[in-house]
């Protein structure tokens, strides 16, 4: 049966509204981006502020500011308690820059032109199955970060903010205490390994990343009081991975890369992990079949990996096949809710 011959699915007014909301989603993105750039959340008093007061502090036009704040209220970021007077909602609180759980840097990074530029060529990425970032910006995503230190710092801050919730959940979700040493491969500033070492005082850590990735690690580990228990090693996981750990942790690493490049990373770990060791992957795990009742963020993130890096989010079956190819066997998958990650545990075979 051709599409033209298939019975028509009934369409409701709600379906039309949904299409309109989806198409206008980029406008909502720009509203949140502008609010973060202007520091709106930081300028609103806990008791509430008027649009005129926010405009005076931000140096913006009062009338346009009122319109922006009302759009933010319509999106659930603010609440208009009286005509022209606003307070923050829980969502708006996350845009404050002085909260330890702030998502302001995540918003700034995700809405940066470097992140949005490739998305204009999503159709080309789907046609070819390859990333479009290099064609758009003349270099790879990480090459672009290396050429723009301010953006690189913002990326690192965004990754740190995105790791905090997983770092809160993971040490309680898995028994790291059975290991002498845990290596965090591609662990950046050490937010995750610091949480593991804090929760398990008898464990030592090994933090492995590029020199640029490790640039803020000393401060993070020192602030957590674990710097004396965590070695820092600079290197490239496409070239090698250091020996000396029983557990090797990869958070938000494999989704950056296609199967071929991910297998290279995993094989380097396989070469040094002891027979009794464990490989621990913290990443999104997509369902085998899309459930429309669940958040679409996992699948949007999957397309983002395609556009920017040629990477992918994976299902449990995808992980099992990738691990098998690299000399591991998938042992278990554990949700790390409320973080949008799962823990994929594998053993060397």
UniProtKB/TrEMBL annotation:
GO terms for biological process: methylation. Residues 21-96 form the O-methyltransferase dimerisation domain. GO terms for molecular function: methyltransferase activity. Keywords: Methyltransferase, S-adenosyl-L-methionine, Transferase. Residues 119-329 form the O-methyltransferase C-terminal domain. This is Methyltransferase. It comes from Luedemannella helvata. The lineage of its organism: Bacteria, Bacillati, Actinomycetota, Actinomycetes, Micromonosporales.
């Amino acid at each position: 049966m051709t599409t033209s011959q298939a019975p028509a699915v009934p369409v409701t007014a709600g379906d039309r509204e949904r299409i309109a909301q989806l198409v206008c989603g980029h406008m909502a993105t720009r509203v949140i981006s502008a609010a973060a750039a202007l520091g709106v959340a930081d300028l609103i008093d806990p008791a509430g502020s008027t649009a005129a007061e926010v405009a005076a502090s931000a140096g913006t036009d009062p009338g346009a500011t009122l319109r922006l704040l009302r759009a933010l209220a319509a999106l659930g970021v603010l609440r208009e308690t009286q005509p022209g007077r606003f307070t923050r909602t829980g969502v708006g609180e996350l845009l404050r820059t002085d909260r330890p759980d702030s998502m302001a840097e995540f918003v700034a990074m995700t809405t940066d032109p470097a992140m949005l530029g490739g998305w204009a060529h999503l159709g080309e990425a789907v046609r070819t199955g390859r990333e479009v970032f290099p064609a758009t910006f003349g270099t790879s995503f990480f090459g672009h970060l290396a050429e723009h230190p301010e953006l690189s710092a913002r990326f690192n801050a965004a990754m740190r903010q995105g790791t905090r919730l997983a770092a809160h959940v993971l040490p309680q979700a898995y028994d790291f205490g059975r290991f002498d040493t845990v290596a965090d491969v591609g662990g950046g500033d050490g937010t995750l390994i610091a949480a593991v070492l804090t929760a398990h005082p008898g464990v030592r850590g090994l933090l492995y990343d590029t020199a640029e990735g490790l640039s803020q690690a000393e401060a993070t580990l020192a602030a957590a009081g674990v710097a004396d228990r965590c070695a820092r090693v600079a290197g490239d996981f496409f070239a090698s991975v250091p020996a000396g750990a029983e557990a090797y942790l990869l958070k938000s690493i494999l989704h950056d890369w296609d199967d071929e490049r991910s297998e290279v990373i995993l094989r380097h770990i396989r070469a040094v992990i002891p027979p009794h060791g464990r490989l621990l992957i913290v990443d999104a795990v997509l369902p085998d079949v899309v459930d429309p009742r669940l958040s679409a963020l996992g699948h949007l993130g999957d397309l983002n990996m395609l556009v920017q890096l040629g990477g992918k989010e994976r299902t449990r079956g995808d992980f099992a096949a990738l691990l098998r190819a690299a000399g591991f066997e998938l042992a278990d998958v554990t949700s790390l809710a409320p973080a949008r990650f799962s823990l994929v545990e594998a053993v060397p075979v």
